[in-house]
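Fold this: Sulphur transport domain-containing protein
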Amino acid sequence: MDTLRSAVGLFAGLLFGFGLALSGMMDPERVLGFLDIAGAWDPSLAFVLGGAVGVSALSYLLVRRMRKPVLAQRFEIPHNRPITASLIAGAALFGIGWGLVGLCPGPALAGLTLGLPQVIGFVAAMVTGMLLHRFTTARRRAS
């Protein structure tokens, strides 16, 4: 079962990466053009985002009708959580980073296959930030 789950996960990841490449989400210039609503706005990625929301909504409807997942013991669905200062700060950092360089984590990881220096630098900064967060959170809990 673990081999099947790994194969399905690999296929899903490859499909996601292919979709990111096909849609132009791995191209920072195109993403920045979409985010520049006051300048030379490129609305084409709105269709990509709309398609993603549509697929997600249909998936949630399907999950509601299923008793359990096909390859797991239970569904891992996020539950509503309160809006906290750390959530707002994280969302702001995400948005600022996306707006500055035109990359977010998914397309950046898929973009590593292209070997572009700005993508490699972004992923290195992202991993550094994740490790820094883990370190500071662990220190805060220990004290």
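The chain has one domain: 2-142. The chain has a mean pLDDT of 88.
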